[in-house]
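Handout, page 2. Input:
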Amino acid sequence: MIHLRRLAKSFSHAIHGVVVVFQSEQNFRIQVAAAILVFFLALFFRVRYEEWIILLFLTGAVLILELVNSILERIVDTFKPRIHPVVKDIKDIMAAAVLIASVIAVMVGVIIFYSPVSLLIASW
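Output:
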């Protein structure tokens, strides 16, 4: 049986987690702003259904990776608050994962938006 109070509380905790990361992590705020811009452009250029799915998937992946990065940073800082070489490597590796996902998302975005943007520019 589904307990609506527990479900509501779970959603409340999840939303609080997003708010905490949004307030404390500049990169997350930038990525959320980029996601909003991408969705605005997708609406403006009326991208195809399949392209929407790709944009949603990649945007979600980048945001989720940034959340995981924030979690990992807080965990390793709890156990090793001073910069330890291994802690630094862990943080750098997780940041690299976010960077790679972001670069791939940008590349796919360029591919999706290249044609409609070039047509818009050509029509001026």
